[in-house]
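Q: Please design a sequence for this.
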């Protein structure tokens, strides 16, 4: 698990399936992907697979333009409509 981004509005954590604890594990809690937390809405989403790959490519393209925090938050805000899980403890 690695914190990739943390602002007043959003936090993004990457879960790497190649971690030693997850290697070869069939436990669904040990899958790779990204957790995006909307701090104001107090909701989060875990994305994996094709959506996670699309997210990663979008972030990489955004980073090339040396974005401001507001631009990064705007990009992450696109995922807010998908967030269904309330943040209880984080």
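A: Design:
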């Amino acid at each position: 698990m690695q914190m990739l981004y943390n602002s007043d509005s959003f936090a993004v954590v990457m879960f790497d399936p190649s971690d030693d604890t997850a290697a070869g594990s069939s436990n669904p809690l040990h899958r790779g992907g990204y957790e995006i937390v909307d701090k104001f809405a107090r909701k989060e989403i875990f994305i994996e697979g094709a959506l996670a790959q699309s997210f990663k490519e979008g972030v990489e393209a955004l980073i090339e333009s040396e974005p401001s925090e507001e631009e990064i938050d705007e990009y992450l805000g696109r995922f807010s409509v998908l967030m269904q899980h309330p943040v209880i403890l984080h």
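Q: Thanks. Anything notable?
A: Strands lie at 2-6, 10-15, 33-38, 43-47, 85-86. The mean pLDDT is 86.
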